[in-house]
Design a protein that fits this description.
This protein is α/β, with parallel strands linked by helices. The protein has helices at residues 8-15, 19-26, 34-46, 53-60, 76-91, 105-117, 137-147, 171-184, 200-215, 232-243, 257-269, 288-291, 303-318; strands at residues 65-70, 95-100, 122-126, 152-155, 165-169, 190-193, 225-226, 251-254, 279-281, 298-300, 326-329, 332-334. The N and C termini lie far apart (84 Å).
Amino acid sequence: MEKRNVTVYDIAKEANVSPATVSRVLTGNARVSEEKRKSVEEIIEKYNFQPNAIARSLFKKQTKIIGFVLPDITNPFFSTVYLGIEKYAVNAGYTMMLCDSMSSHELEFTHLRTLAEKQVDAIVFMGGRVNEVKTNPKYADEMNQILARTPIVIVNGKMTGVDCYKIVTDEEKGIAQLVDYLVSLGHREIGILGGTSNVTATKIKHEAFAKALSKHKIEVNKRWIITKGFSMESGYECMRRLLMMKERPTAVLTISDFVAIGAIRAAKEAGLRVPQDISITGFDGTYISEIIDPHLTTVSQNYNAIGKAIIETIDEIVDGKMPQKEKIIDTSLIVRDSCCERTT
């Protein structure tokens, strides 16, 4: 045999042992007789065999690879979550395999099947089907097909009928923190911009918004709740629509930092000063919240805590333990320059 073609199976055949026995020798497992161990080691040395990751995993049933499926890597929220996870993954000896579904449910399933076929230790899933308010039975069935082979950890999402592990940030608390802060500045006319009604993150934040206003005995003005999407362009359009109204709020929350950037641009183009004429908050605490002018008051999703919780969960799964099914990550308010005391 040529050295470059040698596999675990070749070594097993020449040593007259099973591939699992070769794997046990490679991993230092004690459950191999001295005679068989010596035979296998001699053949390994003969061919200067260097096992690949799959060969090393034959006995351990681990690849030390984590798959990650997200809808849009250009969105700072998803990319920041990914980086938060990868930092802890590398320290724990894992390799990350990133798959961008480009917001396509069909591509999501293609990525899921590919990752399962590569025998990754677990799949982390964000966005798309797991963020829909009403679960599509077809997509749930596809997820369960993968779950039968590979553990899945969902971040900030859920699916009816799909029993995944979940890492969830306390978005309700984050909205309450923003409302409390704006009220402390004297604002009582407050709106909320961005998102779409069929996405769970929007539903959670809108319900939290109404609850937080109610706590301060402030009535919700439904005309100031404008949904259009999660992009800068949608934030721009939402703010334009708001500014066309005769009565408008003195402060607005936005669904994301991306939406906040668009809203600030629209306000400035209309001749308003932020925050003197209108206070604007973001949500997520991504890097762009620090570089926009003015620096954005926002809520951090605590990405390091998300990453740590995910890798701890996967480690427990790999070790055959039973991790907590759902872990809730705290949010934290970041006060910067985009809000000020009410002046009118």
